[in-house]
Structures are given as structure tokens and as C-alpha cells.
Amino acid sequence: MDTMTLWHLTGWEFAALAFAALLVGFSKTAVSGANTVSLAIFAAVLPARASTGILLPVLIAGDVLAVLTYRRHAHWPTLWRLFPAVGVGVVVGTLFLVWADDAVVRTSIGVILLFMAGVTVWRRRRADAAEQPDEVTSRTGRAKARSYGVLGGFTTMVANAGGPVMSMYLLSAGFRKLGFLGTSAFFFLIVNVSKLPFSAGLGLIDGHSLLLDAVLVVFVVPGAFLGKWAVNRINQRLFERLVIAATVVGGLQLLLA
Q1: Helices in the chain by DSSP H: which ranges?
Q2: Predicted local confidence at residue 131, as pLDDT
């Protein structure tokens, strides 16, 4: 890892990373998918490869706070259906990274995110969200869980960008706001923790990166409290629109980078 960049951050660079960490906390407890902006900031301030390892513990800190906040609202049948497909996606993402360069990865993920945002908008225009996510128990729902799980595993492996993918799946499955946040909180805590050994083995996490993480986590906490305060003041329709908008912004950022 290029640790020189970690020890010689300018004031503006550190401020940008602190804002990105605050946005991670906010996204985990309010508008999932908004942390695509954080991904872009980390990659712009730090070396792209190193940024993924530094961001991972920050994301996990946000995941822990989200689980503590929404643990009672998780829908475990959905999670169990997703995890096997996510594992396949992680393997596919690993193989993809062996072949693809950064430009191909960014373009591919950007196209996927924009496509799924469009599909979700189309589906939401056809039917209102159900009060309970019954759709995931049907044959179609299981097929959808597998496809989104593979995409989620793929994008989280190559760019820590699985958030928008899972956001689109949970919206399309008819999750209400609290069920959405509780289910995604457990999903990303489990997935991100499972990625730690791989990141450490690749040299993306070391003592220097963890020192920076320890400082940045301080900013995740107020972001999470801000998100908790905001989510109680956002109605369901606005919540869905914000999630979709965050996904579109993330996709465009990847395409235009």
C-alpha cells in the first residue's frame, strides 16, 4: 500500500475523507446507496486500489450502527436466499478483476446501476409497494434474489459498490422503509466482514490504514445519528425516490470518471 498518501494528507483531503465517512453513516441509517458518493471521494483522494481497503472498515462501522438501530426489522428469509448467490458473485467479480482494467470495471458497474434504477422505476409505476415482502417467497422472487445476489456480490467485490444493487432489489421486492434498512444492515455487515481477510491478504489493510480508519470512524457516528433523525421525517415515497436518485448518481459517477 502507498502509505505516503495516508501520512501526508492535506487539510482539504482529510476534510473530504471526513465528509465521506459522515456520509457513510448517514447512508447506512437513512438513504442506502448514497455512499456511492463516498466511494468516489475515497478513490479521488487516495490511490484507487488502497482506497478500497481503507474504506472497508469505515463501511463496517456504519453497518454495526445500522444493525444496532434497525436489527428488529430484518427479513431473514430474504437474507438466506441472497447469500449463496452473493458468494457466486464474489467469485465472478474476482475473476473479472483478473481480466478487466479500471475503466472496464467502472463502465460495467455504472451501466448495471443505471439499468437497475430504470427497471425499478418502471416496476414502481406499475404497482405500489406491498406492506410485506411476500414476493420473495415465489418462484419469480427466488430467481430475482439469485440474479441480484450475483450482481451484488460482483459489485461489492470489484468496487465496494454493492449498496445500490441491493437497494434496487429490496425496493423491487416491495420492502417498506424499516424492513429495507434492517435487512440491508445485516446483509452488508455480514458481507463486508467476510471480505476483511481477503483485503488484508492483498495488503489493502495494514496498521497505517487502520490508524486512518480509527480517525475517520469518529465521523461515521454523527452521520448515523443524522440519518436516524432524518429517516423518521422522510415518507415512503420520498425515501424510494432518494434511494433511486442516489443509485443514478453513483452510476453516472462511475461512467463519467
Answers
A1: 4-7, 11-29, 36-45, 48-70, 76-99, 102-126, 139-159, 162-172, 177-201, 207-231, 236-256
A2: 43
**pLDDT (tens digit per residue) in 116-147:** 677 667 766 665 544 444 455 566 667 777 88
Spatial CB neighbours of 48, under 8 Å, sequence gap ≥ 6: 102
Interhelix angle 11-29/48-70, rounded to 10 degrees, is 40
pTM for this one? 0.79
Q: Nearest 5°: CA angle at 153, between 81 and 37?
A: 120
37 φ, ψ (degrees, to nearest 5) = -65, -40
User: Do 35 and 241 meet the contact criterion of CB atoms below 8 Å apart?
Assistant: no
* CA 71 to each of CA 20, 64, 65, 182, 250: distance values in angstroms, whole numbers, following the listed order: 24, 10, 10, 6, 27
Per the prediction, the chain carries an average pLDDT of 80
Residue with C-alpha cell 488484508?
Answer: 200
Helix-helix angle 36-45:236-256, to 10 degrees: 30
**Cα–Cα nearest to 48, from 158, 198, 163, 206:** 158
| pLDDT single digits (tens) 203-226 | 778 888 898 999 999 999 999 999
Please work out, in degrees rounded to the nearest 5, the angle formed at the alpha carbon of residue 52 by the alpha carbons of 49 and 53. 100
pLDDT digits (tens, 9 = 90+) for 33-74: 667 778 778 877 887 677 888 899 999 999 999 999 998 998
Q: Which three cell numbers stand for residue 8?
A: 501526508
